[in-house]
Structures are given as structure tokens and as C-alpha cells.
Amino acid sequence: MRYNPASITGLQSSTAGPNLLTLPSLDDVQGLLEVVIKVSGEIHHGRRRFLGAASMTVAAAQFGIFGHADAQSSKAAPNAVPPIEPGTHTSFAPLNQIDAGLLNVGYAEAGPAGGPAVILLHGWPYDIYSFVDVAPLLASAGYRVIVPYLRGYGTTRFLSNEAFRNGQPAALAVDVTTLMDALKIQKAILAGFDWGARSADIVAALWPERCKALVSVSGYLIGSQEAGKRPLPPSAELQWWYQYYFATNRGQLGYSENRHDFNKLIWKLASPHWNFTDAAFDRTAASFHNPDHVGIVIHNYRWRLDLAKGESKYDELEKRLAKGPVITVPTITLEGDANGAPHPDANSYAKKFSGKYTHRVVTGGVGHNLPQEAPQAFAKAVVDVDGF
């Protein structure tokens, strides 16, 4: 896993009296940074520049050059998010199951039952293990963390064999609100990426009373079938090759027979600098054996191209979404600096967020699966947006 110097948290302060800040010496900080860089195994030519910049930061703080305001938030986070090495955790507590709407939903839970609720939403081809390091960070900060398997993944099942295996975006978003109802959660912070970010965006746009705040990787992902009909520049169309593959019978059969290797390829393309282990991928790959997985995935991508119909009960919601509704709740959008998956430019969607808003780029070769590749940055965004 690549080491990112920017992930080091700020210096811890101790109160020695009113308005006093106790800081380590400059030599101590330089020594600590030397150790961190050596352990990371990434000593490079930028090392001296990094140490020099850090030294100047400490010196400036000692002489009162910098103010106390967070550069990206006007309020300090209520709890500091400690550093964590991605891949530190490999499991959740035993999963729970609950009937919610059309589904029996499998989900992980962490943190105090009475804490403010955070719902973490994964995408394709990923699962709840994208948040295996994020969940304990948020739990330790006092949040009640819910991490559900989406329909078609893991232990989530349809309650009826007759139910249409629908992958359209409005249906997935409604799954979030029905899960909240089942868990008696009136309002929650919603945070996700890929399909999960889209679902979180939709809930925040259509039902802002259910969303306290939003963290969305790749920003505003609400779309429509009409928008999906419009061609893109050739280089952009190339990035969507799998969507066109899924539009064919051969693609559906190929995904069904080769889903393990297919999705591992997507991981590599979407996060080209992420050196994930076979064990990490296999933990997630188990969720693709859900009996509805192929049907949900194929329907989702065919629906986007208007090659498959949805359900009429979602028509009114899709009409509202096709208008590109503005999101009014406090929001932080995130993007990895090495996201290899198709994603919009942040400037193209900034005006879609009318409440307090900031965008952050997470550096260090971070790809599409941002919460698993950079769990501290993702967890910090959740804590920070809660303070907006």
C-alpha cells in the first residue's frame, strides 16, 4: 500500500493553561517523520522537501504564524480521526439481518446504539469490506455505523421470489430509506462511493429530511435514461466498455461465468496504484455469489442506456431525478488523485450543492475504492461534514 505523507494527522495539543499550546521540538518531529517514511518503504527524492515543509509548519506554529482555522472547514472536528494503515482490519462483528421493504438486508454495525447514525454505502464491484477500516474509526468517534449489503450482494436477499430484480437507481435509493425505517433511524449521515454515492445523492436530493449530511466520492452522480442516450467523446466511451459489454447476451453470460476475474480486472483498472492483496479481493468476491447479483448488475447498466425498463412505481421519482435536483444538505465530495474509473470533473457539479460544501482531492495514488484505499481521509470527511 502506498504511503501518503498528507495522511499524517495534525500535532496533538495539550492544555497547559489558557491559550497555551505544547508542541514537540523541531528535532523530535523530524525524527518521527524519518521513522514514518522509512517504515513506509517509500524513501524518494521528495523526502527532503517534505521534511523541510513539515519543519516550516512546526516552526510557523511555534511562532504563531498560522491561524487556528481548518483550511477546509470553519468548525473543528468534534473528534480527531487517528491515522490507520489501510488493511488493518479484515472482518466485522457478526452481521445482522433485518426485513426492510422488499429485502432482507444483511448489514454490519459498529459503535454505540445511541450515537448519531452514519450509513456507509458501497458500489460495484465492491461490498461492505470497502469500509472495514472506516467503520471502527467512526465507531471510536461515537457514531452508530451501519454498513449494508446492497440488493444483489452478500447476505441481502429479496423477500419474494416473484419480485423483479431491479437495479435502477431510484430502487436502490429507496432501499436506503426503507432500511432506515426498519432500523428506526429518522436521519443519518450518508456516505458512499460508486453506486453507493449515487444512492446517497438521491436520498439527499429527494428526501433531505432523512439526510443530516453527505459524503460523496466523485460528487454528483444523479443521472437519467435520457442523459444516457447522448454519446460521449471516444476516449470517454472507451472507459465505459463494460457497460456496452453488459448490453449483450454474451456480456451477461460472460459476467455470470467469470465474475471473479472480471471484477478483479475492474479493481485493477479503477485503482491502478492500489496494491490490494488476493485475500482482500476474495473477501469481497464472496459477495458476488449472491443469487441475484448478475441480474441486478446487468439490469442496472442496461437501464442506464434505456435498454431495459424499470418499474412504474419509480417513474415519478425518476422524472424528478432527470431534472438534476440540487442537493441542499451539508456535503463533502471526495476524489482520489488516481481514480481510473469514469468520473465527472469536480467543477462540473460544484453548483449542484447549495448548502455548505467543499471538495477534497485525496492524494497518494488513491483510486476509485477510496474508503478502502484511504480510510482515514474518508472517515475524516464524515466527521468534518457532521460539524458543518
| Helix content percent band | 25-40%
Number of strands: 9
The secondary-structure element order is HHEEEHEEHEHEHHHHHHHEEHH
Query: What is the overall pLDDT average?
Result: 85
The major β-sheet equals: 9 strands, mixed
Amount of beta strand: 5-15%
Radius of gyration over alpha carbons?
Answer: 22 Å
User: And the CATH topology of the largest domain?
Assistant: Rossmann fold
Shape field:
globular
Low-confidence stretches: 1-78
Text of the CATH class of the largest domain? Alpha Beta
> What would CATH call the architecture of the largest domain?
3-Layer(aba) Sandwich
Structural category is: alpha/beta
Count of individual domains: 2
The DSSP helix count reads 14
**Looking at this structure, what is the CATH superfamily of the largest domain?**
Alpha/Beta hydrolase fold, catalytic domain
Distance from N terminus to C terminus (CA atoms, Å) equals 31 Å
Notes on the protein architecture:
With 388 residues, the protein is α/β, with parallel strands linked by helices. It has 2 domains: 5-62, no CATH class; 96-386, Rossmann fold, CATH 3.40.50. The chain is built from 14 helices and 9 strands. The chain has helices spanning 26-40, 47-62, 134-140, 169-182, 195-206, 225-228, 234-239, 241-246, 249-270, 278-285, 293-304, 315-322, 370-373, 375-386, and strands at 96-100, 103-110, 117-121, 144-148, 157-158, 188-192, 211-217, 331-336, 357-362. Strands 1, 2, 3, 4, 5, 6, 7, 8 and 9 form a 9-stranded mixed sheet that branches. β6, α5 (195-206) and β7 form a beta-alpha-beta unit. α1 (26-40) runs antiparallel to α2 and α3 runs parallel beside α14. The radius of gyration is 22 Å and the shape is globular.
